[in-house]
Write a structure and sequence with these properties.
Elements lengths: L12 E10 L2 E11 L4 E5 L6 H8 L13 E4 L7 H7 E4 L1 H6 L6 H7 L14 H13 L15 H12 L6 E5 L7 H16 L3 E6 L11 E6 L2 E7 H4 L2 H8 L4 E5 L2 E5 L2
Parallel strand pairs: 3-7, 3-8, 5-6, 6-7
Antiparallel strand pairs: 1-2, 1-4, 8-9, 10-11
Helix pairs in contact: 4-6, 6-7
């Protein structure tokens, strides 16, 4: 079954008036957001804007602090859901995950562990179908040569692509990437961009969380701007990514220029 085959007719994410408070601090302040399964969307904002908290709400690590009739917190049209169903529809790649996986397990084991939501393999029973799926993804992402390489011996960019492979083993309808280009050099950034564009073209939705304008691949048509735990703007990329909007968001004067479908900020 492909990602497109398992899509729900209801929105993948449906939040209305969502607020999250932790230890007396407001992380999300009355956020309303709807994302369709298979949609390509970027969530852009400065550090501390609430982007990671929003992702934790999407992955159900965070729940509404004040649930009520005016608050909507739905996944694929459901107010309650099965954890396995959520995991099979959503793949997540983060810097924290890469840190956890910096250990002496092979690239192949990294991908296989995605079937079990584990860190490496223990007494899990790996089936021939799982092995076949891993081979397919390794080839698709161009990292088959890393299958037997320990994670401690690969570059940051290579590790990022292996973790993307781990997130894809269930053919999720949506892939969430939290600051995916952190610590990458220019070559690794170039390769990751090509990888994300290939995934987007395959039908898997991309939710890209970043503070870097140039991370937003051309396939992403919608951008959400976040600041201070709230959504500042949500709309089509050309309308949102203007000098005025980005300057106000980051509180710095900028010049925006576009090249080959990418947007770049200069002059700050």
């Amino acid at each position: 079954m492909t990602a497109e085959d398992q899509r729900s007719p209801d929105p993948f994410v449906e939040f209305q008036n969502l607020s999250i408070v932790r230890d007396g601090r407001v992380l999300l302040d009355s956020v309303s957001l709807t994302i369709q399964e298979g949609e390509h969307i970027a969530i852009l904002g400065p550090n501390g804007a609430g982007k990671s908290s929003l992702i934790k709400a999407i992955t159900r690590e965070y729940y509404p602090s004040a649930p009520g009739p005016e608050v909507t917190f739905r996944f694929c049209g459901q107010d309650t859901w099965d954890a396995f169903d959520l995991r099979s529809r959503l793949g997540v790649v983060s810097g924290d995950l890469q840190y956890i996986f910096t250990r002496g397990i092979s690239g192949r084991e990294v991908l296989l562990s995605g079937f079990f939501s584990s860190i490496g393999l223990f007494s899990h029973e790996v089936t021939p179908a799982m092995e076949e799926k891993v081979d397919e993804i390794l080839e698709f992402l161009g990292v088959a040569h890393l299958a037997d390489r320990p994670m401690t011996e690969v570059s940051s960019g290579e590790a990022r692509r292996l973790l993307i492979g781990r997130a894809l083993v269930h053919d999720p309808g949506t892939l969430v990437l939290d600051e995916p280009t952190n610590s990458l050099d220019l070559h690794a950034l170039h390769t990751l961009r090509k990888t994300l564009r290939k995934i987007a073209g395959s039908g898997t939705g991309i939710i890209l969380v970043t503070h870097n304008l140039h991370d937003i691949i051309p396939e992403i048509a919608r951008v959400v701007l976040m600041r201070d735990g709230a959504i500042a703007m949500d709309g089509e990329k050309p309308t949102v990514l203007t000098e005025r909007n980005i300057g106000e968001l980051f509180r710095v004067p900028v010049h925006i220029h576009r090249e080959d479908g990418y947007y770049y900020a200069t002059g700050y």
